UniProtKB/TrEMBL annotation:
<dbReference type="GO" id="GO:0003677">
    <property type="term" value="F:DNA binding"/>
</dbReference>
<dbReference type="GO" id="GO:0015667">
    <property type="term" value="F:site-specific DNA-methyltransferase (cytosine-N4-specific) activity"/>
</dbReference>
<keyword id="KW-0949">S-adenosyl-L-methionine</keyword>
<dbReference type="InterPro" id="IPR002941">
    <property type="entry name" value="DNA_methylase_N4/N6"/>
</dbReference>
<dbReference type="InterPro" id="IPR017985">
    <property type="entry name" value="MeTrfase_CN4_CS"/>
</dbReference>
<dbReference type="GO" id="GO:0005737">
    <property type="term" value="C:cytoplasm"/>
</dbReference>
<protein>
    <recommendedName>
        <fullName>Methyltransferase</fullName>
        <ecNumber>2.1.1.-</ecNumber>
    </recommendedName>
</protein>
<comment type="similarity">
    <text>Belongs to the N(4)/N(6)-methyltransferase family. N(4) subfamily.</text>
</comment>
<feature type="domain" description="DNA methylase N-4/N-6">
    <location>
        <begin position="46"/>
        <end position="285"/>
    </location>
</feature>
<keyword id="KW-0680">Restriction system</keyword>
<dbReference type="InterPro" id="IPR029063">
    <property type="entry name" value="SAM-dependent_MTases_sf"/>
</dbReference>
<keyword id="KW-0238">DNA-binding</keyword>
<dbReference type="GO" id="GO:0008170">
    <property type="term" value="F:N-methyltransferase activity"/>
</dbReference>
<dbReference type="GO" id="GO:0009307">
    <property type="term" value="P:DNA restriction-modification system"/>
</dbReference>
<keyword id="KW-0808">Transferase</keyword>
<keyword id="KW-0489">Methyltransferase</keyword>
<dbReference type="Pfam" id="PF01555">
    <property type="entry name" value="N6_N4_Mtase"/>
</dbReference>
Amino acid sequence: MKDLDLITNSLTDVEQQQIKSLQEWQNRMILSDCLPVLREMPSNLVDLIVTSPPYADSRKKTYGGISPNDYIDWFLPIAQELKRILKPEGTFILNIKEKVVKGERHNYVIKLILAMQQQGWLWTEEYIWHKKNCYPGKWPNRFRDAWERCLQFNRQKKFKMYQERVMVPMGDWANSRLKKLSDTDKIRDPSKVESGFGKNISNWLGRSMAYPTNVLHLATECNNKNHSAAFPKSLPSWFINLFTETSDLVLDPFVGSGTTCIAAKELGRHYLGIEIKKEYYDLAVSNIEKALFNIQAEKSAQKALNSSLPTEAEKVQSSAEQLPLSLEEDLPGKNSEKFLNLADIVDIEEY
Ligand SMILES: C[S@@+](CC[C@H](N)C(=O)[O-])C[C@H]1O[C@@H](n2cnc3c(N)ncnc32)[C@H](O)[C@@H]1O
């Protein structure tokens, strides 16, 4: 604490105020309509927003849907505040899917994207969440709905992104495809459509991990029975891992059962959740408390395990004790030093 005081005392008033504001908003759940809360928040505070707002008109009975025709007018003031409180290098992930109205997909999501671009957001990317275990069913004019959009918006082209963290194993295709390389595979092969892109397949030789695609194959979770529209924890976790660092602040303004906050905490980030319905707010608080308990229990178990494991010095001492006498005699500093470092032992074993 002394160190922190020292650091904060050396900061300017503005910087001190910024730290204070950040601490005020960290690790909080707020029971409210999100718009007035967002209006209270300081600018440039949040590192990542991941959220799934109520879908237009759907689930009216459970948490009051917004009519598809009113959706943009309802969401834009919220988006405006989100843009203000997001740090310039932060990211906003909006999980949404247009519903079917009168036999066709409504166009409010498309219109919302255009309106948000007008508002100054960059529509950087669209990830697809493929729901591996979507609802069964049969419709006369369409098939089972197995995906949702995760729209990525940013304030500027340069944003924080840590791609290596979400790399995936190359998979079996690599073994067969990379076995027989043609001549063009070994040089940069320009795209046939003259897009300017090219590929050099041989670059993949010897690699075990690859960058993922923008399609996330995640199962919905069936164990969150108390909220009808919870997304799986793996969804916010993937984006939190990709777009934030430890101790960053992650916001979910439509937090429901608290999934985003739990994912954030498990990854060592701070959270802020806002929920309008008391029933879901209580559920989120209780879910977060359980998650914090589990995180703490896991930490304690790990600590206990670490303290029961021999330290490096003990390991080295015990290996030294097991060495044949003649080899022990060759150890450097045998008479002066009881404890040797591991490198000494490794060197000796290599000879
Ligand atoms: C699709 S659900 C989010 C579910 C959440 N992702 C989860 O995993 O549990 C949307 C939530 O937003 C809440 N909500 C609706 N309007 C709101 C508003 N204006 N402000 C804050 N929360 C709101 C609903 O009560 C609902 O719990």
